[in-house]
Write a structure and sequence with these properties.
By secondary structure, the chain is mainly beta. The protein contains two helices and 13 strands; from the N terminus they run ββββββαβαββββββ. The strands form two sheets. It has a seven-stranded antiparallel sheet. 22% of the residues are buried.
């Protein structure tokens, strides 16, 4: 991602077309997935190209989300947008409370043990039901439970670091 897009959050992807009137199938990364429709405009990015689009309408359709974009009125126009990633500006998100974080805030942060061993950086997060898990990539990949106060000792976004009470051999 380029410097001009540092203040954006990846919220989904245009995965296909729906019908003949320009509607798009949306793969949403938001939770719940229909929350992606609460944000407009969307910044679409694909292969370094960007475009800003306005969401006109949308709803849940079966197990997925469909949306209509302003000035996209037929299937042929819609097909040109398949594969584009959907971003929003961070300011469009509701503010978090003290000690709360969006997953996107944690991506790329360095993960260090309380003993000073660098495990790597947060590459991804998984929602497991019991607790979320940080996927940390360094010299190898690790799955570190996101349990604040036990495993997660401190999150310092300004320093770009998460301190964890975790055995580096795990």
């Amino acid at each position: 991602m380029t410097k001009e897009h540092d203040n954006t959050v990846d919220v989904g992807k245009i995965s296909g077309v729906f019908g003949i009137k320009g509607w798009l199938k949306i793969f949403s990364y938001t939770s719940p997935k229909e929350n992606i429709l609460n944000y407009s405009p969307w910044l679409l990015i694909k292969k370094g190209e960007t475009k800003m689009v306005e969401v006109v309408s949308g709803h849940q359709q079966g197990g997925g989300i469909v949306a209509q974009i302003k000035d996209v009125n037929d299937r042929n126009q819609a097909e040109t947008l398949v594969g584009w990633e959907i971003f929003i500006h961070r300011e469009q998100l509701p503010a978090t409370s003290e000690g709360e974080y969006y997953w996107s805030d944690l991506l790329g942060l360095e993960v260090v043990t309380t003993g000073g061993v660098v495990l790597g950086v947060v590459d991804n997060l998984l929602e497991t039901g019991a607790n979320d898990v940080l996927i940390v990539k360094g010299e190898r990949e690790r799955a570190v439970p996101f349990i604040k106060g036990q495993v997660i000792v401190k999150i310092d976004r300004e320093a770009g670091r998460i301190t964890v009470d975790w055995d580096p051999d795990f």
